[in-house]
Amino acid sequence: MDVLTLLSALSEPTRLGAIRLLWDGGEHCVCELMTVLGATQSRMSRHMGILKVAGLVTDRRDAQWVRYRRAPNLPPDITRIVDAVLAAANAQERSAA
Amino acid sequence: MDVLTLLSALSEPTRLGAIRLLWDGGEHCVCELMTVLGATQSRMSRHMGILKVAGLVTDRRDAQWVRYRRAPNLPPDITRIVDAVLAAANAQERSAA
DNA sequence: TTGTATAATGCGCATTAACGCATATGCGGA
DNA sequence: TCCGCATATGCGTTAATGCGCATTATACAA
Questions:
Q1: Measured between CB atoms, does A7 come within 8 Å of chain B?
Q2: Secondary structure, 3-state, chain B
Q3: CA dihedral defined by B33, B39, B45, B50, rounded to 10 degrees?
Q4: DSSP readout, chain A?
Q5: Which domains, ranges and CATH numbers included, belong to chain B?
Q6: Digits of tens for pLDDT over chain B (97 positions)?
Q7: pLDDT digits over A20-76, tens only?
Q8: How far is the CA of B64 from the C1' of D28 (A)?
Q9: Long-range contacts formed by A29-33: CB under 8 A, 24+ apart
Q10: Which of A1, A13, A56, A96 is the most exposed place for a label (fewest CB within 10 A)?
Q11: So what's the pLDDT on residue B25?
Q12: Does the CB of A48 sit below 7 A from strand D?
């Protein structure tokens, strides 16, 4: 789990949005993520691949869907970073609204 | 202070190294940073410019030097992110050694 | 004024990242 | 088996990033 890889994985709006959605632990298919985040299918799939390579999420095939969710057992160092980033992002969105 | 800008600013090894050096609050000139981090002059200057635009550092002209330091009065949300990133980076470096 | 040291910037190049389109793959249902 | 839905991926294009080289700007000192 490389910090620099983690940071570049998070520094893209669609990916950060996906992490925000997945961070509560729930499972979400690509089709849901793409509609919620307003991304095309290939874009969404590729972004999820990057998050997966970074080690932030895992995927599971469920019939014709692929369900993504927050990776379990993430090192606390990493969890702290993502938590802090999401807190700041949420605060930022609130102030922008 | 945009979270995405912050994340991309941090997701480059030389810049992350610079932040690590500056984060204790001390002032450091470009010439020092470039020797410590092993960067050329123009590279170092540009990277510091990016950190400055991101709002993470401020600079001050002192004779022929430009002294950079951690930006004062950063929002707590932002400080928490950088602190978490540096903690993870330090832990990572220790385990790599 | 001229020279030296430090830092910033214009410019071109190489690499990487992001994207859309089209196609392939995996899976279930008719 | 054939079709349709969901997802991944190959490919080409475009944009962004990082870099070095050379030049310029800024400040001090002789």
A1: yes
A2: CCHHHHHHHHCCHHHHHHHHHHCCCCCEEHHHHHHHHCCCHHHHHHHHHHHHHCCCEEEEEECCEEEEEECCCCCHHHHHHHHHHHHHHHHHHHHHC
A3: -90
A4: --HHHHHHHHSSHHHHHHHHHHTTS--EEHHHHHHHHT--HHHHHHHHHHHHHTTSEEEEEETTEEEEEEPTT--HHHHHHHHHHHHHHHHHHHHH-
A5: 3-92 (1.10.10.10)
A6: 899 999 999 999 999 999 999 999 999 999 999 999 999 999 999 999 999 999 999 999 999 999 999 999 999 999 999 999 999 999 998 887 7
A7: 999 999 999 999 999 999 999 999 999 999 999 999 999 999 999 999 999 999 999
A8: 7
A9: A29/A62, A29/A65, A29/A66, A29/A67, A29/A68, A30/A65, A30/A66, A30/A68, A31/A65, A33/A68
A10: A96
A11: 97
A12: yes
Q: Is the pLDDT score of A97 beyond 80?
A: no
pLDDT at B95: 86
**C-alpha distance from A50 to closest chain B C-alpha (Å):** 15
